[in-house]
Amino acid sequence: MMYAGVAKTNQPVRLDMRSDTVTQPTADMRQAMAGAAVGDDVYGDDPTVNALQDRVAQLLGKEAGLFVATGTQSNLCATLAHCQRGDEILVGDSYHIFRDEAGGAAVLGGVMMAPVPTTSSGTMRPEDIANTVKPDDAHCAMSRLLCLENTVAGNVQTVASINQLAATGHAHGLAVHLDGARLMNAVVKLNTSAAKVVENVDTVSLCLSKGLGTPAGAVLVGPADFIRRAHRIRKLVGGGMRQIGVLAAAGLYALDHHIDRLADDHDNALRLAEGLAQVASIHVNPDDVQTNMVFMQLPDGAADGLRNHLAERGILLGGGSKQIRLVTHLDVTQDDVALLVTEISDYFG
Ligand SMILES: Cc1ncc(COP(=O)(O)O)c(C=O)c1O
Questions:
Q1: What pTM does this model have?
Q2: Distance between Cα 160 and ligand 1 center (Å)
Q3: In this structure, are strands 315-316 and 15-16 parallel, antiparallel, or unpaired?
Q4: How many Å lie between the centroid of ligand 1 and the Cα of residue 177?
Q5: Which of 93, 296, 312, 332 could form a disulfide with 115 if both were Cys (CB 3.0 to 4.6 A apart)?
Q6: Domains of the chain
Q7: What is the mean pLDDT of residues 247-273?
Q8: Is 20 near ligand 1, meaning CB less than 6 Å away?
Q9: Cβ(207) to ligand 1 under 6 A?
Q10: Residue 349: pLDDT over 90
Q11: How close is the Cα of 91 to the center of ligand 1, in Å?
Q12: Residue 252 pLDDT more than 90?
């Protein structure tokens, strides 16, 4: 097992709060997948993939889209399509591209990653970006790309903040990419259009298999020439897939049916935080909850005991020794939230 501190259980799973990636495709989504028209996507022949790519490009107000296997592959195709070997990307030091993608840009692209301090709300300060950009000096890697993220650990990055950071990047001659693994959570929370949120960034990765609830897939969007380069890189990293209209159909279904309902996940997360805030010995602040993530601070040494206790009852929590993240999603109901609050308060009570 290569996943530090994440609970497993031999019990039937009643409730899985580790991530919004754990959702099961619904019966209607499976039906849409089964009925999808497909073709060989390496030849560009899959009508459902083509429809999904066009649909996401339009949703995000960009020229073209590329369906890829995962969010990680999408960000990798993006960084490699933006950069050459010896270039550098600036990225928030808590962001997924920097911490959680196995160093792919460096390993496979010869691209250096320069971390920029991230604030508690998940943003970066323009002055920190400016200080991290390298001068035009033979000693330095060439700063080429600024990577943003939205949401960041459940925190919504506002349109004003994204625009300010994008303007900072552009003013320093950087292209700007946004990892929008959970972009639609931010869009629903901001009650605006997705295109507006990403208007001033050049390229965006949108995951379909987080809150949107598909079994796999992400779509990378941007200018047509960028997507042409990313398409070649997708092939290079072994991501040219064939009759994947079955997966793209799940994505189209999710765009039709699973965006507005993200508000339910946000409501459930708030309800959960309000319930847990009543439990003595742990600390949860409902004011910190913006979308579908709740962070629970635990007394020293309590995390493993709680995780194991709940796992024996078929409830899975994510890793962490002082803090555990709880994520609401398509398969978490209001009753599940009530159950979890009761179980945690009984454990500490
Ligand atoms: C912010 C963010 N970006 C990118 C990814 C990568 O997505 P995937 O797991 O599909 O590779 C994740 C996955 O959890 C994520 O949280």
A1: 0.97
A2: 24
A3: parallel
A4: 15
A5: 93
A6: 15-20+261-348 (3.90.1150.10), 27-257 (3.40.640.10)
A7: 98
A8: no
A9: yes
A10: no
A11: 15
A12: yes
Apex CA 145: angle with CA 115 and CA 41, to 5°?
115
Q: Separation of 122 CA from ligand 1 center, angstroms?
A: 16
- CA 198 to CA 163: how far, in whole Å? 8
Predicted confidence (pLDDT) per residue in 152-209, tens digit: 999 999 999 999 999 999 999 999 999 999 999 999 999 999 999 999 999 999 999 9
Is residue 5 pLDDT above 80, yes or no? no
Ligand 1 within 6 A of CB of 177: no
Phi, psi dihedrals of residue 139, rounded to the nearest 5°: -75, -20
State whether the beta carbon of 88 lies less than 6 angstroms from ligand 1.
no
Which residue in the block uniquely carries the two structure tokens 């493993």? 304
**pLDDT greater than 50 at residue 1:** no
pLDDT digits (tens, 9 = 90+) for 316-330: 999 999 999 999 999
What is the CA(90)–ligand 1 centre distance, in A? 18
Confidence of residue 10 (pLDDT cuts 50, 70, 90): confident
Q: Are 181 and 210 in contact (CB under 8 A)?
A: yes
| Mean pLDDT taken over the chain | 96
Q: Which atom of ligand 1 is nearest to the CA of 70?
A: 10
Nearest CA to ligand 1 atom 8: 71
Q: At 93, phi and psi to the nearest 5?
A: -70, -10
Determine the Cα–Cα distance for residues 10 and 58; give it in Å rounded to an integer: 44
